[in-house]
Design goal:
Layout lengths: L1 E4 L3 E4 L3 H7 L2 H4 L23 H14 L4 H9 L10 H6 L7 H4 L1 H6 L3 H7 L4 H5 L19 H13 L6 H5 L1 E4 L2 E4 L2 H19 L2 H20 L11 H9 L3 H11 L4 E10 L9 E4 L2 E4 H4 L1 H15 L2 E5 L3
Helix pairs in contact: 1-4, 3-4, 3-10, 13-15
């Protein structure tokens, strides 16, 4: 099986377990679940989006490049299967928008209720170990607590650099290494460059005013749909196309909310209005120098001071007036 990827180019997958999982319905559903949290048709200043499927396969490919074992590659492929339609927006509707961890909390339950345990068992793998990836340390290349580097964090950053910022990603890939079980860069300059790129993604994309307001509006629409019974928890894991079809067929009020959520944004930043905040994403990359692992903040205290200031600013939230609110 040949996989073509925007970041890692062409890769041959010949392990039967990976081929079966890539083609499993639970995984292919992610083709119609947007990574950004809303579909590509939404009127946005950054119209290029990519799917959770692309990111999931990308994590697997990055782990292969880094020499991870097959079990960790499987975990990389499956780490996001529990994402709902609209991805992290669901946390704004029923969870905690400052944590955005709904999909992590339900991952084990979701995998166990799917066809994935049967596929894994048929190839000699224990699904319980795979589904506990968020709680254990046995997949240290795939997942690490912030501000450390991990394959998940690196892949989605490279994709937003490529799609939304039109920046080259190959130099960063060429300078990644694994040292004592940790992903690191082989030089301070590359680690600092990636840290700055990540911070830029946070400011310009993930926590930009447009993105924060868009999340808020879509979440309000979902809340109202749940309140009216147009959407239930059973619908969370349909595709976004199916989800939107349900919303638009559920009466004038929800259609109006859908138009506001998916149409041109109408808001202004002010001292009054509503205060909304999104999860603060940050990294402090490690790099290897003279056989020793160091963090960017050790060599550059100004970087961590700036990062802390940005975190405090984002924690206060964005105060906006939206449309007629």
């Amino acid at each position: 099986m040949i996989v073509q990827d925007a970041i890692y180019a062409s890769a041959e997958i010949d392990e039967p377990v990976l081929i079966d999982l890539i083609n499993a319905p639970t995984v292919t559903r992610l083709r119609d679940v947007s990574q950004r949290g809303y579909p590509a048709f939404v009127n946005s200043a950054m119209p290029v989006h990519y799917s959770r499927y692309e990111h999931s396969v990308g994590c697997m490919l990055l782990l292969r490049r880094l020499g991870a074992g097959l079990e960790e590659q499987i975990a990389g492929l499956l780490h996001d299967v529990s994402h709902t339609a609209f991805s992290h927006v669901i946390d704004w509707a029923i969870g905690d928008p400052t944590k955005e961890d709904y999909q992590d909390r339900i991952l084990r339950q979701y995998i166990n209720a799917s066809e994935l345990p049967g596929i894994l068992a048929s190839h000699g793998y224990d699904s319980s170990k795979i589904s506990e990836m968020e709680e254990a340390d046995h997949f240290g290349l795939l997942e690490r607590a912030a501000p450390q580097l991990c394959a998940d964090r690196i892949d989605y950053t490279l994709r937003d650099m490529h799609y939304s910022m039109h920046r080259r990603t190959k130099p960063f890939l060429q300078h990644l290494t694994v040292y004592n079980g940790h992903i690191a860069f082989d030089s301070y300059d590359m680690a600092l460059g990636f840290a700055r790129a990540y911070a830029s993604c946070q400011r310009r994309i993930w926590a930009s005013p447009d993105n924060v307001v868009r999340y808020y509006l879509i979440a309000q629409m979902i809340k109202k749909a749940i309140e009216k019974g147009a959407i239930t928890s059973a619908d969370f894991h349909c595709t976004e196309t199916e989800f939107i079809k349900k919303l638009r067929g559920s009466g004038a009020e929800l259609q109006g909310l859908a138009e506001a959520a998916f149409g041109s944004l109408n808001y202004r930043i002010s001292r009054s209005g509503i205060s909304i905040a999104k999860k603060f994403r940050h990294i402090d990359p490690e790099y290897v120098q003279e056989g020793r692992m160091m963090r960017v903040s050790e060599a550059n205290p100004a970087y961590i001071r700036k990062l802390r200031a940005q975190g405090l600013k984002e924690a206060k939230g964005l105060c906006v007036e939206i449309g007629g609110e």
